[in-house]
Amino acid sequence: MKSLEELQKIKERALERRRMSAEGMRARVVVAMGTCGIAAGARDTMTAILNELERQQITDVAVTQTGCIGLCEFEPIVQVQLREGEMVTYGKLTADRVPTLIARHVVGGEPIDDWTVKQKA
Amino acid sequence: MTIFRELSQHLLDIFENGAKAGATLITLNIVEDFAADRLLLEVRDNGSGMDAEMVRRVADPWVTTRTTRKVGLGIPFLKQAAEMCGGEFGIESEPGVGTRTWATFQHSHIDRPPLGDLVGTVLCMIVGFPTLEVLFQHTVHTANGETREFTLDTRELRAVLGEDLPLSDPEVLGFLRETLTEGEAHLRAGVEVPSLA
Cβ B16–A33 below 8 Å, yes or no? Predict the structure, then answer.
């Protein structure tokens, strides 16, 4: 079984890693987790994001959640913001699309226009 | 008819209610009793709570505190899921103290959704609300009277990590995933699930 001693070792390693990467977070990823989002698969989308970041050992991306943002028909909704850039809102971002999203937008730095939700101003 | 495929999605949804009510601690309690053929899901929070009138109306889908959409479906869904599986639903709340939401199911009921991805669900809770404490308790009473328990308490983990390292750190999340996966596997190992035949 996993033990708290093991967590202690992880802590030391992770803190050292954080000290090395003083540049801060490269991106913020927000998953909408209202009832509508959960029903559409938001949990699986978030799990896929965490898996993909872990798989690629990307440690400078902050993943968080928000509630229903009033675009229920486009759930699962994911928002990506690179450093000081604009927040890009993606619709129908199911778990199978996550590796492409991470590769092209988070790592590659280019939003995927075809998947974004165009909001009327 | 429910729009959630898994009971863990209901847990996540009810959890979100507590988190948005300003809770600092949310307890998730799952009890599977194979001898009594019963399953309990319970979410307790120490958030702002609701008055009696709101509690009375909360199972009505047309009631919600949200402003982005006019319908609140989470609680009616859970109530409906429980009641169609030979179970019951309840919600108790006190302003300033918190809310307890629970649902029971006939464990073997053919319409009962599976618990589903509990590991992913708890990880989403921890990542989504990194400052919130989560106490996850899952108990299994086997058909032959054995009791197995698995508990994950973020307060214990935070005591080790200190203030500089959040629970949502990728390496810590990896540890959490393994801990949850092992714990859940231990609950299931060798448990005879009564068949539906």
Answer: yes
Q: pTM for the full model?
A: 0.89
For residues B17 and B46, give the distance between their C-alpha atoms in angstroms, rounded to a whole number. Answer: 11
Cβ count within 10 A of residue A18: 15
Helix pair B7-20, B118-128: axis angle to 10 deg: 20
Tell me how many degrees the CA angle B77-B79-B81 measures, rounded to the nearest 5: 65
Structure tokens at B45: 């929070």
Closest to A68 in 3D by CA, of A28, A101, A38: A38
Q: Which helix (H) or strand (E) holds A117?
A: none
Q: What is the DSSP letter of A73?
A: G
Contact B56, B126 (CB under 8 A): no
Q: Are B59 and B88 in contact (CB under 8 A)?
A: no
The model's pLDDT over B58-78, given as tens digits with 9 standing for 90+, comes to: 767 666 665 555 456 788 889
Whether B171 sits inside 8 A of A43 (CB atoms) is no
- Phi, psi angle pair for A64, to nearest 5°: -145, -175
Substitution target in A7, A19, A35, A50 with the highest count of B β-carbons within 10 Å is A35
Give CA–CA dist B147/B124, Å, rounded: 28
Phi/psi-derived region of residue B137, left when phi > 0, alpha when psi is between -120 and 50, beta in every other case = beta
Reported as a single tens digit per residue, the pLDDT across B175-186 is 999 999 999 999
What radius of gyration do chain B's Cα atoms show? 17
ipTM comes to 0.86
In 3D space, the residue among B194, B196, B195, B197 whose CA is nearest the CA of residue B35 turns out to be B194
